[in-house]
Amino acid sequence: EMLNGLDDLSRSIQNFMAGTRSLIFDLIPPALYSVGVGAAVEGFAKQFGKKQGIVIDVNNQLTVRQLDPNIAVFLYKGVRECVKNAIKHGGADRMLVSLCHSEQYIEVAVEDNGTGFTPDEDHFGLKKDSGFGLFNLKNRAEQFDGSITLAKAEKLGGGKVTVYVPHKKLEGMT
Predict the structure, then answer these.
(1) 3-class DSSP state for residue 35?
(2) Rounded to a whole number, what is the distance in angstroms from the first to the last CA of the chain?
(3) What backbone torsions phi and psi does residue 164 show, to the nearest 5 degrees?
(4) Element (H, E) at 115
(5) Three-class DSSP category at 50
(6) pTM of the predicted model, to two decimals?
(7) Helix 37-52 and helix 69-90: axis angle, to 10°?
(8) 10-residue averages of pLDDT along the chain (174 residues)
(9) SS3 of 129, please?
């Protein structure tokens, strides 16, 4: 009986370790540093979409792989937050994530086919019945001298969140 207890404990520890590794990988995948934010977002979209049974298309127009690591983590986490919010609050089952850059900005947009945003509501404020998602996203964008806009999704008809980060915050861009 003692051996069975030790076997159960060993399995529990192995499951805990696997869960911890998975959580760490989900939070900040190694691909973010090795192949860049665009490829990391593509990987997230593929895995998360499959897991949730939804479609997440990615239009990655970024030609620069290496961003300031803090910006790359911010953009990756921002995409993840927007995708999860679109499902949770908008009931979306189809999304388009677009990543591109201009002379001035890196732009990351998440569009969905959900219910969209309620006009005239402060979506960036703190509320008792919701989390800190858009509030934190806006504040982090501002820390990088960037901004966020909310709009109706042109292509999918739901909501659209766009994050802009100034070009001056990029490294290695020509």
Answers:
(1) coil
(2) 66
(3) -115, 135
(4) none
(5) helix
(6) 0.77
(7) 20
(8) 78 73 59 83 92 95 79 91 90 95 89 80 52 78 91 88 77 43
(9) coil
